[in-house]
Design brief:
- The chain is an alpha/beta fold.
- A hairpin with a 4-residue loop joins strand 11 and strand 12.
- Helix 3 (about 45-55) packs antiparallel against helix 6 (about 150-160) and helix 4 (about 60-85) runs parallel beside helix 5 (about 125-135).
- The termini are far apart.
- The protein has a seven-stranded mixed sheet, sandwiched between helices. A six-stranded mixed sheet has the order 5-4-3-6-7-18, sandwiched between helices. It has a three-stranded antiparallel sheet with strand order 1-2-20.
- It is built from 15 helices and 20 strands.
- It is globular and about 85 Å long.
C-alpha cells in the first residue's frame, strides 16, 4: 500500500506532469502501444484475475469472464479499431462568415487524470476508463477500491510491469488516501461509486474547476406491466438482479409490479431462482457473496424489516444473503430510500402508468430504467415522460453491451458518459480549429462602418 503523504503526492504528480508535458503521449503510435499492452495484460494474467475476484467476494469464474474480462476485451477491440480515426482532426462544413477557410474539430488530451474505481466490478471499472484515458493521450493516477483488496493489490503489482511510472500510477489506500489525492490538481477526474461520495468528489474538484465524470447509482426501477411476458420477465430480472449477488450499479433496485400479475411473477421467480442456483443457493458455486461485513449487515437489515416472499436466508460467517424477494407496502420504507446493492428485490404494487410517471418525476433520476411490456403505447409513454440514464425494454443490463451507445447517469445517478467513442471523448477536450486563407480578405467587417456596409451585412445574414 502506498502511503500518499503530501510530499509523496507532489512528487508523483510532478513525475506524471513532466511525462505529459514532454509530448510523449500525443502520437498515435504511443496510444496504440498502450492498448496493445492491455492485450498482453488481460491475456497473460487471466488466472490471476479469476483468483483475485474469488478472494474478494467469491465471484464465479463465469461471471468474471462475462462481466469483467470479456467486457474489457470487447471495449479494447473497439478502441483499437477506431483510435486512428479519432486522433485525426475532423473537418466540418465551413461557415461563409469565415470564407475562405477550412474548419476542424479535434480532440486533445486533458493531461493528468485521476480515476477512482469502485469495488463491485473492481477490474472492469478500473481498467475500462484507464484504457480510454491512455487512448486519449493522458497520464493516469488509478485509485482502486480498498474494499476489493485482492484485486487492488493485483492491479498495483501488474500495471507497473506494463506502463512507465510517468504514464500510470496506481495508488492504494483508504478514504484518507482518496481525500489526499483529491487535494491535488488534476486535469480531469473520473469517479465511479455512490452518490454520497460522488458529491464529495464533485466538491473537491470544484476548488480547481476540474471537470469530472461521475458514474453513480441510485434506485433503478424495473416495471412489469400486466401486458408483460411474466415467465420471461422473471428470468431476465433474476439474472439482472442476482448476478454478482446484486452488487451492480445498474441492477434492478426494485420492481413496480402490476397487482394483477404479482402472484404469477413471484411463482415464476421461485422457479427461476431454483433453476439458477438450486434448492439451496448457498451451496451454489454460481452465486457470489457480499463484499464486506458492513454491507452485509446493511442489506440484512432490509430483509429483517420487510415481508419476505422468497429467500431471506443469511450467513454472517460467509457474508451470504440468499436471492430474496420482499413485499413492500410502504413506499417510504428504508429499503425504498437507499440503493440496496445486494441480492434483495422489493416488489411494489402499482395500478396506473400515470402513477409510475409521477413517482419518477418526484424522485432522483435512476441510472437505469427497465420496462417489461408488450404494449407499445405504454412503453413509449414511459420512455418519453420518465427521466433516466439508460433504458432497456424487456431486458436488464443489456444497454451497456453496445459500444456505440453512451453510458451514464442523470442528476444524482451521474454526470457525463463513457463507453466506446464516448470514453475517448470523456478524456479529451474537444477543440475547434479554423484555418483562414490569406489570398482574400473581405473588408466588410472592418471599420469604419458605413451605411452601405450595414445594408450589405443585413443582406449577408439573410443569405446564410
Amino acid at each position: 500500500m502506498v502511503n500518499l503523504g503530501k510530499r509523496c503526492a507532489v512528487e508523483k504528480m510532478d513525475l506524471l506532469r513532466n511525462y505529459f508535458n514532454s509530448g510523449a503521449t500525443l502520437s498515435y503510435a504511443h496510444r496504440k502501444k498502450c492498448l496493445q499492452q492491455f492485450d498482453s495484460l488481460l491475456e497473460k494474467h487471466r488466472t490471476d484475475f479469476f483468483e483475485a475476484l474469488q478472494l474478494d467476494f467469491n465471484k464465479p469464474v463465469f461471471e468474471t469472464l462475462a462481466t469483467e474480462l470479456g467486457m474489457l476485451q470487447k471495449e479494447l477491440k473497439y478502441l483499437k479499431k477506431h483510435l486512428k480515426l479519432w486522433t485525426q482532426p475532423e473537418q466540418v462544413a465551413a461557415t461563409l462568415l469565415n470564407f475562405p477557410s477550412k474548419e476542424y474539430k479535434a480532440y486533445q488530451p486533458f493531461g493528468v487524470v485521476l480515476i477512482i474505481a469502485p469495488w463491485n466490478y473492481p477490474l472492469l471499472l478500473a481498467l475500462q476508463p484507464v484504457m480510454a484515458a491512455l487512448a486519449a493521450g493522458n497520464c493516469v493516477v488509478l485509485k482502486p477500491s480498498e474494499h476489493s483488496a485482492a484485486t487492488s493489490a493485483l492491479l498495483a503489482r501488474l500495471l507497473p510491469q506494463y506502463f512507465d511510472e510517468g504514464l500510470v500510477q496506481v495508488v492504494e489506500g483508504d478514504a484518507d488516501v482518496t481525500a489526499n489525492l483529491l487535494k491535488q490538481r488534476f486535469d480531469k477526474i473520473f469517479f465511479t461509486g455512490s452518490t454520497k461520495v460522488g458529491k464529495m468528489v464533485y466538491q473537491a474538484a470544484a476548488k480547481n474547476l476540474t471537470p469530472v465524470v461521475l458514474e453513480l447509482g441510485g434506485k433503478s426501477p424495473c416495471i412489469v406491466t400486466s401486458n408483460a411476458d411474466i415467465a420471461l420477465a422473471a428470468k431476465r430480472i433474476a439474472f439482472g438482479k442476482f448476478v454478482n449477488a446484486g452488487q451492480t450499479c445498474i441492477a434492478p433496485d426494485f420492481v413496480f409490479i402490476h397487482q394483477s400479475v404479482e402472484a404469477q411473477f413471484v411463482a415464476e421467480m421461485k422457479k427461476v431462482v431454483q433453476q439458477f442456483y438450486g434448492v439451496n443457493p448457498e451451496e451454489s458455486k454460481d452465486f457470489a457473496r457480499i463484499i464486506n461485513d458492513m454491507h452485509y449487515q446493511r442489506i440484512k437489515r432490509f430483509v429483517l424489516q420487510s415481508q419476505v416472499v422468497l429467500g431471506g436466508e443469511t450467513n454472517a460467517k460467509t457474508r451470504y444473503i440468499a436471492p430474496t424477494l420482499l413485499k413492500i407496502h410502504d413506499r417510504d420504507a428504508e429499503v425504498m430510500n437507499e440503493e440496496i446493492f445486494g441480492p434483495v428485490l422489493p416488489l411494489v404494487n402499482y395500478e396506473t402508468i400515470d402513477e409510475l410517471i409521477t413517482y419518477n418525476q418526484a424522485h432522483p433520476k435512476p441510472l437505469a430504467f427497465y420496462v417489461f411490456s408488450s404494449n407499445k403505447s405504454e412503453i413509449q409513454q414511459l420512455l418519453q415522460r420518465c427521466q433516466y440514464g439508460g433504458a432497456c425494454i424487456n431486458d436488464c443490463l443489456s444497454h451497456i453491451l453496445n459500444s456505440e451507445l453512451p453510458f451514464g447517469g442523470f442528476g444524482e445517478s451521474g454526470l457525463g458518459n463513457y463507453h466506446g467513442r464516448y470514453s475517448f471523448e470523456a478524456f479529451s477536450q474537444t477543440k475547434s480549429v479554423v484555418y483562414r486563407n490569406t489570398w482574400l480578405d473581405i473588408p466588410l467587417k472592418y471599420p469604419p462602418y458605413s451605411k452601405n456596409k450595414l445594408n450589405l451585412l443585413k443582406r449577408f445574414f439573410k443569405m446564410i
